[in-house]
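Exercise 7. Given the encoded structure of a 408-residue chain, write a plausible sequence.
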């Protein structure tokens, strides 16, 4: 029985192809927007989670407070110093702690000058291992050449971003010589893109070389601590905050630094992404409302055109529920077909955004994910919108008497 109802409804849509397509436009635009926005939001959240868990759930970041438009500590008046690092290293539960410089530099190659950042690797073996692990610039991640040795002075490594033309139509390769703030350095390695924008746009050098080059005696852009496996990371983070506050002579609540674990940052970013996605999806839902009104209008028109058909059905024994079901299925199919087209358009749109972002920005943070519940949910939602929009026209059709219908 239900199959017969569906056949009648679908047959009616095919008889009025142009009207059906025009009616579905509002639905598939709305569904396409919703699917693309949610898929990009989920993909971005997954990529961010991956990046932060590369940092590790057992690690704590200490950075200065204040607005930063570049890498941590690169443009803030507040600084962290060697003495702050020593405080962190003494906290119970800290396995190893190190500091990192992230400084703006001027690079010259092939008669072209650009401004970028240099990030450092510590000289101490344990501290260096921690930074190499976090930045993902170990030997296994090298695309060409080698990673830095602790003894390297005027040597530099960089991401594969710099293989692309950036200096008067030329990219860099292993063996090239670049002038950094007037000092000639050798490119000894090119590493694969890490997905971390700050690492991928920076040159990487040993800390001693950068201090000599930029005449920086003791400051750091950020501090990083690895917490012992048997310690509670939140308790250790609180202890670091307390000791640093006392060392810097600050009152509680007046800290000029901030301490973050990977989970802290993830919670904040997840909240922001959820709010932004919800707002954008809400805006896109306006198109679905318009689409639903369009379906309602089409179904009212269909009821008026098919009153004779309704009268014949009722005259040969069709019940009110039969007529109601036929028109409800027809309006639901309008919504579902529009939703299926919208899902396809949404998938294509979000994959295009992912591809364009990767090509233009060189980052893998913008990704699209399509979990099964997103696809199924969008399809059922579009069918529901169509069905609800068809309720009143279907009720009107079902309540017509055979005499009223045939009289028209």
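Solution.
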């Amino acid at each position: 029985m239900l199959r017969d109802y569906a056949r009648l409804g679908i047959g009616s849509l095919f008889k009025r192809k142009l009207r059906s397509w025009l009616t579905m436009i509002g639905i598939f635009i709305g569904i396409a927007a919703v699917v693309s926005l949610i898929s990009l939001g989920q993909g971005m959240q997954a990529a961010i989670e991956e990046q932060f868990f590369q940092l590790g759930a057992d690690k704590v970041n200490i950075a200065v407070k204040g607005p930063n438009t570049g890498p941590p500590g690169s443009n803030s008046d507040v600084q962290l110093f060697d003495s702050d690092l020593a405080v962190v290293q003494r906290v119970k539960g800290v396995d190893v702690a190190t500091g990192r410089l992230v400084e703006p530099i001027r690079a010259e190659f092939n008669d072209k000058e650009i401004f970028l950042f240099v990030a450092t690797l510590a000289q101490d073996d344990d501290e260096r291992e921690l930074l190499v692990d976090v930045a993902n610039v170990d030997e296994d991640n090298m695309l060409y050449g080698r990673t830095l040795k602790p003894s390297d002075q005027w040597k530099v490594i960089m991401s594969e971003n710099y293989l692309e033309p950036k200096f008067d139509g030329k990219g860099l390769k292993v063996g090239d010589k670049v002038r950094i703030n007037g000092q000639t350095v050798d490119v000894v390695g090119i590493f694969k893109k890490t997905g971390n924008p700050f690492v991928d746009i920076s040159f990487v050098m040993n800390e001693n070389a950068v201090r000599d080059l930029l005449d920086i005696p003791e400051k750091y852009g950020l501090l990083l601590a690895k917490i012992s496996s048997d310690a509670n990371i939140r308790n250790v983070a609180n202890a670091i905050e307390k000791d640093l506050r006392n060392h810097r002579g600050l009152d509680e609540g007046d800290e000029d630094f901030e301490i973050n674990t990977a989970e802290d940052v993830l919670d904040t970013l997840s909240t922001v992404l959820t709010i932004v996605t919800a707002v954008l999806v809400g805006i896109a839902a306006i198109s679905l409302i318009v689409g639903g009104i369009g379906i309602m209008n089409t179904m009212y028109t269909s009821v008026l055109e098919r009153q004779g058909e309704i009268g014949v059905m009722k005259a040969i024994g069709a019940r009110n529920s039969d007529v109601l079901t036929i028109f409800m299925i027809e309006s639901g199919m309008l919504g579902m077909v529009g939703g299926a087209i919208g899902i396809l358009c949404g998938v294509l749109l979000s994959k295009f955004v992912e591809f364009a972002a990767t090509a233009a920005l060189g980052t893998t943070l913008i990704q699209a994910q399509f979990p099964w519940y997103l696809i199924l949910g969008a399809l059922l939602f579009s069918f529901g919108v169509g069905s609800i929009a068809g309720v009143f026209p279907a009720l009107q059709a079902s309540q017509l008497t055979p005499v009223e219908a045939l009289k028209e």
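Remark. Residues 2-52+267-407 form one domain. Students should compare their own answers with the one above.
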